[in-house]
Amino acid sequence: MRATPLLAIAALVLAPFCGAGSHAESREARTAADDPQRGALASDAPPTLYNSDPNHIANRLFASLYVRKSNLPERPGGTPIPRYEGGDVLEFPAWANTGYYSEPQTAARIEGQLKEFLAVDAAQLPQAPLNRVLLQHDLWAAHDHLVQQNIAWQGTREERDRRSRLAVLLARAIRRLAPTRKEIEALPETYDEAARSPAFAPSHAWDRSVDYLPPDLFSQEGPWIEMDFFRPNIHEDIEGRFITLHTRHFRGRSYFRVFYRFPGGRAALDPYLAYVEQEGIDWKFAAQHGFIRLKEKLKQIPAGTEVALVQFLIALDDGLKPVPTEIVQSVRLRTFKNTDGATDPDTDSARGMNVYEYVMRRKLLFNGLKNGGLEREPNDLHQYRQVFLGPTSPDWGPKGRQETVAAQCIGCHTTQGPGAYTLVTLTNQGGFDAGAMMGIAFALPSGAPSPRPARAIRWKTRDETYRRLVEAVEGSSAADAAKPNR
Q: According to the model, what pLDDT value does residue 289 have?
């Protein structure tokens, strides 16, 4: 991994607009396990993330997009609880059928703040490239959401018009924040910072309470091996099939890499993959249904296997070209104490599998890259789920805030069985409609560059949301150039 230049770190630490804010401000106001407000914000006041002044336009604009009020029960059948949600979170708090950002009052507030943001002197905006990239990314997510709703022809003409106005202003703000490619390439490799941090343990000894983060995840000669999709030998334009479902969910604003760690290393992994391909697939079922299914009584992955899914941020340079970064937005880990599904109450799944989820916090990144910007989400924290909910998902999701972090992970990965049956990336089980191909994943050669960033960017630049972003900026620039000089 590339070392972070000392001058770059100093610039991040000393940046005048890096107001870190407290944990309570930006994420959780209360942490008691039995508190119904656990994980909520103390108020809807702008968190001091992008400037130490909460009334700074960058903080107010962020809050208008990322701080919302909910009034839903914590558990099924419970009493609705008013809460302030969002703040320093990973995902833009909007579901496919969210009407919140199209409401006249909300849209007018955001529109006014965007116009103020575009009019303020450039010296008053975040100056450090890291801060600009993060705020740009925050606005990019909002832009894509509004554009997707308009592409789907959602709502009334008035609602679509409001979204269109906001999308154009967001595009201009995104362009205004854009760093140069050189600045993007000098951004830190935040996983390295996290791995060196005393906040994370290099091993877990099957203690699920330990904040375990493997320090050798990206080591070329280490035990972790990057996995890639099966690629068929056909002459078609099928690049869109070789990005993860997670990349699709984030509309190509992030790229994801997948790693396996087998006890015994590559010498154990490669033969296992060959075995699954030759003997472990029900190929008749796959041919008839377009969906790979593992056979029953498959020879299992070895106990002690670990899997990692790592999410990285993609930035837009001053030419609006997507550029991959080494800023880690999330790390999801699963460790297998046993792989046969035997009862083990000391594991999160009670069936031998532990789960870990680490997410990026702006307040940590802007505070001298503390902990590499990563913080573990408590496994028992109830969350609103956004990933993979589809085009008909209601506001706040179909379950609201009624599933814990561990339950969400376990629910996705254990429906087919334990061990190997939980490895969705082993066979790309998403089906043809989700871009799956009929074959087994393979291990990238040691030292080979990851193909994931470039693929995600190719997919994004073909996506309608990106085309509309570029057209909005180019249209605004042309309109400005056509104005008479005074």
A: 77
pLDDT (tens digit per residue) in 172-213 = 999 999 999 999 999 999 999 999 999 999 999 999 999 999
The 8-class DSSP code of residue 179 comes to P
Please report where in the chains the tokens 């998902």 appear, as a residue: 393
- CA-based end-to-end distance of the chain: 52
Distance of CA 126 to the CA centre of its chain: 23
Residues facing residue 356 across a β-bridge:
333
**What is the band of 171 on the pLDDT scale with cuts at 50, 70, 90?**
very high
3-class SS at 83?
strand
Instruction: Yes or no: say if 423 and 307 are a contact pair by the CB < 8 Å rule.
Output: yes
Q: Which of 239, 267, 265 is nearest to 252 (CA)?
A: 239
Helix H segments across 27-180? Answer: 57-66, 104-119, 129-151, 157-177
- Residue 252 makes CB contacts below 8 A (sequence gap 6+) with 243, 314, 322, 456, 457, 459, 460, 463, 466
Q: Which helix (H) or strand (E) covers residue 269, if one does?
A: helix 266-279
List Cα–Cα distances, 195 to 217, 348, 448, in angstroms: 9, 23, 22
Question: How is the chain split into domains, by residue range?
Answer: 6-185+464-482, 190-461
Type of residue found at 93: P
- C-beta separation of 211 from 203 below 8 A: no
